[in-house]
């Protein structure tokens, strides 16, 4: 069977050891400041989710050996799977509870989606590139992430049928916060979004009981731009 690979026990254990090292590296980077505001280390449940989810299953075969390096990797169609440090930081900022309903804009490989799936109650994720959306859906189903609903379309519009969301994560950069996303965020909800042009600022938006919002700039980042239909 050309191309087929038997994953032996020792290979699976190696993946676990690699993930353990990856989360330790993330914590070291967060602890050393790294330009991130307010997050000094991953909370135990976020750490556990990142130790559990097999990142190598979400990267193309030619990049699998680099799956646990702390870097973004190409996933085709000019898009990338985000750097594990960024995935950890964004997830941490969402402060998810197991009962939360979360919207993700920019499914990409589905890796961040899988992390959200472990930590939240329901995950809704939208991807604009159909090939990526289909591949991520197939991967998430194959790996057993059952509380995830996927959609192909323009995430700028959010997913009104399932709103309001306790948390929204945007993994591609617009130059402003999409108004439909603010409308679909619950009062006391949190949104994490990169904002800007070539360079961006990772921004935490908090919505209060009276509907007003406050934003906090967390760190300088570089994401792919949010594509508009
Ligand atoms: N979270 C992803 C992961 O773990 O692989 C990484 C996402 S990648 C940095 C950003 C994704 O956003 C790309 O797959 C891109 O096609 C998608 N995207 C860009 N504009 C979009 C839009 N308007 N709606 C939905 N997805 C969009």
Strand portion, in percent?
25-35%
Would you count the extended β strands for me? 9
CATH class: Alpha Beta
Q: Could you name the ranges where pLDDT drops below 50 across 5 or more consecutive residues?
A: 1-9
Taken from the alpha-carbon principal axes, the silhouette is: globular
> What CATH architecture would you give?
3-Layer(aba) Sandwich
Mean pLDDT over the full residue set: 92
Q: Which ions, cofactors or small ligands are bound in this entry?
A: S-adenosylmethionine
**CATH superfamily membership:** Vaccinia Virus protein VP39
**How helix-rich are the residues, as a percent range?**
25-40%
- CATH topology, by name, is Rossmann fold
List keywords for this structure.
229 residues, alpha/beta, Rossmann fold, two-stranded antiparallel ribbon, 6 helices, globular
Describe this structure in words.
By secondary structure, the protein is α/β, with parallel strands linked by helices. It has a single domain, classed as Rossmann fold, CATH 3.40.50. The protein has helices spanning 9-31, 44-52, 84-94, 111-119, 130-142, 179-184, and strands spanning 73-76, 79-81, 101-105, 122-127, 148-152, 165-170, 185-196, 200-207, 213-221. The chain has a 7-stranded mixed β-sheet. It has a two-stranded antiparallel ribbon with strand order 1-2. Helix 4 links the parallel strand 3 and strand 4. Helix 1 runs antiparallel to helix 2 (44-52) and helix 2 packs across helix 4 (111-119). The longest helix is centred in the first third of the chain and has 23 residues, at 9-31. It starts with 8 loop residues before the first helix and ends in an 8-residue tail after the last strand. Bound molecules: S-adenosylmethionine. S-adenosylmethionine binds next to strand 2, helix 4 and strand 4.
């Amino acid at each position: 069977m050309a191309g087929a690979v038997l994953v032996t026990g020792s290979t699976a254990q190696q993946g676990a050891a690699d993930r353990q090292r990856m989360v330790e590296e993330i914590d070291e980077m967060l602890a050393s400041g790294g330009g991130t505001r307010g997050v000094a280390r991953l909370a135990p449940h976020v750490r556990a989710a990142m130790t559990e989810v097999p990142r190598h299953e979400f990267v193309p075969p030619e990049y699998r050996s680099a799956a646990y390096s702390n870097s973004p990797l190409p996933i085709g169609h000019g898009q990338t799977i985000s750097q594990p440090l960024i995935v950890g930081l964004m997830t941490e900022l969402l402060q998810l509870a197991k009962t939360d309903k979360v919207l993700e804009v920019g499914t990409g490989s589905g890796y961040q989606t899988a992390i959200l799936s472990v930590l939240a109650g329901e995950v809704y994720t939208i991807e604009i590139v159909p090939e990526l959306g289909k591949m991520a859906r197939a991967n998430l189903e194959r790996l057993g992430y059952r509380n995830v609903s996927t959609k192909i379309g323009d995430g700028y519009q959010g997913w009104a049928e399932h709103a309001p969301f306790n948390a929204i994560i945007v993994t591609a950069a617009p130059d402003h916060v999409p108004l439909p996303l603010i409308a679909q965020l619950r009062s006391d909800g949190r949104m994490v979004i990169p904002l800007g042009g070539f360079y961006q600022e990772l921004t935490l938006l908090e919505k209060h009981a009276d509907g007003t919002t406050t934003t906090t700039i967390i760190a300088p980042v570089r994401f792919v731009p949010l594509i508009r239909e």
